[in-house]
Specification:
The chain is α/β, with parallel strands linked by helices. It has 7 helices and 8 strands, in the order E-H-H-H-H-H-E-E-E-E-E-H-E-E-H.
Length: 234
């Protein structure tokens, strides 16, 4: 019998934005599992919701005007053949994600800023010895009532499981990190809290960065310290 392929191991602490959001609201046992899963990521991490993510991003970048294009994506996914059991679930779940977004898109606020796709060469945030992977899909720029040169960002999160979704606290913490990244990417502009948000697609909620963030910063720093200290022991 051939030897099992060894798991990929991240030697240095590194977590995704969604993982940190889950960590903040988790109990001690679940926190350890989250750290384990981030240290030993799956060999093959498919972009399961990429069709929905791309369609939603294009729709946002049209300022919610191009309904025809996003409907065509839904129709295409409906008619796409499933070559295996995995795809028989993936395509309907992507349709469900897009439809969930469309149910709430009129309630979402772009703060009168111009949406564009965020470039992919983004810096990593580092807090307490932990590298945080924060990748907002949408960049917002323009003139805002709070700043003549304003910037913002929107990150999308996909999870059908309520246990992995966002609540008000973890949503605001995630949005605060989006604001921190936007401030680094657009250093010549003001990262406006109300323009920095995370959208829980299946949860149907948009969470914006709070204007007062001292306690959140302290909690995020404490969580990162805990992750860094636990990392070698999982």
């Amino acid at each position: 019998m051939p030897n099992a392929r060894p798991k990929k191991v991240r030697t240095a602490p590194r977590v995704s934005l969604h993982a940190l959001a889950r960590y903040i609201k988790a109990d001690a046992r679940t926190r350890r599992r989250i750290i384990h899963d981030q240290k030993y990521p799956a060999d093959f991490q498919t972009v399961y919701y990429q069709p929905a993510r791309a369609a939603i991003c294009e729709f946002i970048c049209s300022s919610f005007a191009d309904m025809e294009a996003i409907v065509k994506v839904i129709e295409s996914l409906h008619s796409r053949p499933a070559n295996n059991d995995y795809e028989s679930h993936r395509w309907p779940n992507n349709v469900e994600a897009i439809e969930a977004f469309l149910e709430v898109h009129e309630e979402l606020d772009l703060q009168s800023l111009q949406p564009r796709s965020m470039h992919t060469d983004l810096p990593k945030l580092s807090i307490g010895g932990v590298v945080l992977s924060v990748f907002p899909e949408i960049a917002l720029r323009g003139r805002h009532k709070k700043a003549s040169k304003a910037a913002g960002g929107i990150a999308l999160m996909f999870s059908k499981d309520d246990r992995f979704g966002l609540d008000d606290h973890s949503g605001k913490a995630s949005a605060h990190l989006v604001q921190q990244l936007v401030g680094e990417v657009f250093a010549d502009r003001e990262a406006v809290p109300a323009a920095c948000s995370v959208i829980d697609v299946f949860g149907g909620s948009q969470y914006c960065a709070p204007t007062t963030s001292k306690r959140l910063r302290e909690e995020i720093a404490l969580a990162c310290d805990e992750i860094a200290h636990t990392w070698p022991y999982v």
